[in-house]
Amino acid sequence: MATRDSNGTELNDGDSVQVIKDLKLKGSSTVLKRGKTYKNIRLTNKEEEIEVREGKGTLVLRAEFLKKV
Prior knowledge:
The protein is mainly β. The strands form three sheets. It has a three-stranded antiparallel sheet, with no helix packed on it. Strands 5-6-7 form a three-stranded antiparallel sheet, with no helix packed on it. Strands 2-3 form a two-stranded antiparallel ribbon. A hairpin with a 5-residue loop joins strand 5 and strand 6. The model has no long low-confidence stretch (mean pLDDT about 95). The chain contains no helices and eight strands. It is globular.
């Protein structure tokens, strides 16, 4: 079970990733802009999803919209 980004690069806990397209957050009016970088990611049980810290909360993002930095 390997989590891979949009380029096929394997992701690990603690990696940094960058958003490759604007993403609307479900249940919110917030938009994550292309180019936003998240550091120190955490992998989840599902191989297509990762967790990132955003302020005081946690976001779950799909790996297909991210690239490793």
